[in-house]
Amino acid sequence: MASTPVINLRKGHAVRHNNEICLVTDHELKTPPRMASYVQMSVRSVATKKVFNLRLTSNDSLDGVMLERDPHEYSYKDSSGYHFLHPETFEDVTINEELVAPMKDYLIEGQLYTLLIADGSAVSIDLPQSMTMTVAESSEGVKGDSANNVYKPATMETGLVVQVPLFINQGEQINVKTEDGSYLGRA
Questions:
Q1: Which residues, in sequence order, are bridge partners of residue 183?
Q2: What is the pLDDT of residue 41?
């Protein structure tokens, strides 16, 4: 992809910075009085997760990377990585452990996820804002302990531990916010 002016970039776009594919995580055009405008932006390397804070003039440009968002079904994990299956072509895409590590507790077999594909290889997983998960293990709430906002830890089917209200029991389905792993309510 050709050079893209930084003023046209937005959060979620992919660019090449320091010979690495990076995702734009923050982008803001600043126009101070009596000074030239500039773009303050943060980009995160897909491979190393390192964040670069850039301050560029509005005339600068970065090499854009074609980014595709393609739905894939999570299948299984083995020694080579996490396997995703395209629902129409049945193509198997393997993503390495380091790339999936921050979101592995949200991967449920058979569920569709959006893979971000740059230059023909999967670079990240775009999680939904919330997910419905099943409580695999939870202690019983203590009878009479009904003070406001009392929470207990519950382990989900994937191993994720979520703080839930006392009335949530093992086997129930709840909605979990993927940004911070917080309880949103019953499903």
A1: 176
A2: 93
Residue 72 confidence (pLDDT): 93
Q: Whole-model pTM?
A: 0.70
Question: Structural domains in the chain?
Answer: 3-64 (2.30.30.30), 67-126 (2.40.50.140), 130-186 (2.40.50.140)
- Express each pLDDT in 55-88 by its tens digit: 998 888 888 888 888 899 999 999 888 999 999 9
Q: What phi and psi, each to the nearest 5 degrees, are found at residue 11?
A: -60, 130
Give residue 46's identity as a one-letter amino acid code.
V
171: alpha, beta or left? (left if phi > 0; alpha if psi -120 to 50): left
